[in-house]
Amino acid sequence: MVKLKSMSFQNKQEQAFTLAEVLITLGIIGVVAALTLPSLINRTKNKELHTAFLKTYSELNQVAQKYYADNEISVTEANIDSHSNLSSQIMTEYYKGATKLTNGGMGTKDEEGNYKAFYSIRTLNGHKYSGGENSQGSNSSFICDNSPFYLTASGAVIIFNDNATGEDQTGPVVCVDVNGQKAPNRYGMDYFLFAFTKDGKVVPMGDTNQTSIGTVAANGSAGNFFKIGSHNCLNNVDDISKNTSCAYYALSNTHPNKTGKDYWNDFLGEVSFR
Asked: Where are the beta strands (DSSP E) in the chain?
């Protein structure tokens, strides 16, 4: 019996890990976690943003269709004098529970009375920039800045831009931050552009079935416009005009430039943060 117990104790000693082995194992686990955890966190965040994007897009289309049914004309066809009145009518009558955050597209004024952006938006690759002049003669980091900022009951921030200026044109353009003022606040991640259409719908900016109208400059200044093409959805440039058609690829979840790749994981996964 004594001999058996001794052998059993010896086997347990041989099976035990040394302190060095434990430390090496923990080190390996730490390295693997450091390599995989950021990617896992980003995928989780991107999934949340994707869900918010789809919800916001669905709400916009419900509003457009109800407006069409109530008024027998589309938002595009409606003869509304100012952008502010248009946004006020839609946000008040069709977005129940929406909150008006600002009185104008620029948000607030500084000590010298100049308008400043309500909050900062960056390009897709993280470049901070100052936008061009808008209708109020002020600088903004938002392409859409011709109406007050509104917060929807679902948590999105909505800003309207220009009305359509011709019978064959798409508009008005509407910009949406799908998760409100929360990070990352970047074009193509949580900030996207859409446009109302004559047939009572809303389409993502970049939709190839729509007519391209007007321009948007590198600094973000824009008139009525509709940008099309993968060259207007790039993740490695500081030019804001190259982020404007990303909503189209985000909706279809396709990589703008790589076949077989998706938008929310593959394309956004290529973005360099700074």
From this structure: 99-100, 108-109, 115-116, 150-151, 157-160, 173-177, 191-196, 202-204
